[in-house]
Amino acid sequence: SDLSPPSPPPPAPPPVPAQAVRFDRLHKGQAVAVATDGAQAKWQGCNELALIRPRAGSDDLSRFWVSFGDAADIPDSVWIDVGFCSPAIPLNLSGSSAPDWMGDQVSAAGRPLSWIYRASGLFRAAAPVHDPGKPYGKAFGGSSNVSAVRHSATELEFAVDGVSQGRVTLAASEALPPGAVGCVGVCNQPITA
Fold first, then answer.
1. Which pLDDT tens digit goes with each residue over 121-161?
2. What average pLDDT score do residues 65-94 get?
3. pLDDT by residue (tens digit) across 162-182?
4. Which of 24, 101, 144, 182 holds its CA 20 to 30 A away from the CA of 89?
5. Distance between CA atoms of 48 and 168, rounded to whole angstroms?
């Protein structure tokens, strides 16, 4: 993937309306609790994922945002990954035959199953060889609001508190599949979408 530095800051985006997405109550790891309305998910452990899908009546999942609810001060050691995933990605990674991290999940053909912006400021298109990712944007956490935008199958963008961190251009072999959905992986923190 090609990580281009951010261009001059764009004008401030308009206020974010209520989103047309929610955490999927049926497609989540065993240690993830999702509120009845899908607006909040809470992790009781690590290496588990929750998928984000459009609300009923909407089919748009080109953009979404998550905020870190009550976590006023998330320590640097907490892992948070936000981005897009193939619905085929395993949701319970601890103790499974799959690698323990969503950034290492690939299909049988070796294609990525996740494309994530990490709390450490790194970006990772999943690959079979473990690597934490490439330098991309600023680190986030605490009360941050992280937005994910899919401009196309090969172009993504993430923003922290409304500030773009630049666009990510993926190689054709790393492109998102048509059915990609939003996803979040985190350890022991409440996450609101």
1. 999 999 988 888 999 999 987 678 899 999 999 999 999 99
2. 74
3. 999 999 999 999 999 988 999
4. 144
5. 25
* The two structure tokens encoding residue 53: 């899908």
Encoded tokens for 31: 């240690």
pLDDT tens profile 101-112: 888 888 989 999
Residue with tokens 């401009």: 151
The distance from CA 178 to its chain's CA centroid, rounded to whole angstroms, is 16
Neighbour-count burial of 108, counting CB atoms closer than 10 A to its CB (0-12 exposed, 13-18 middle, 19+ buried)? exposed
- What is this structure's pTM? 0.82
Q: Please give the DSSP secondary-structure letter assigned to residue 1.
A: -
Contact 48, 143 (CB under 8 A): no
Query: What is each CA distance from 45 to 40, 78, 79, 92, 185, in whole angstroms?
Result: 16, 11, 11, 10, 10
As a whole number of Å, the CA-based R_g of the chain is 15
List the structure tokens of 179. Answer: 């059915």
> Do 102 and 81 contact (CB within 8 A), yes or no?
yes
C-alpha span between 20 and 65 (Å, rounded): 10
CB 20 within 8 A of CB 55: yes
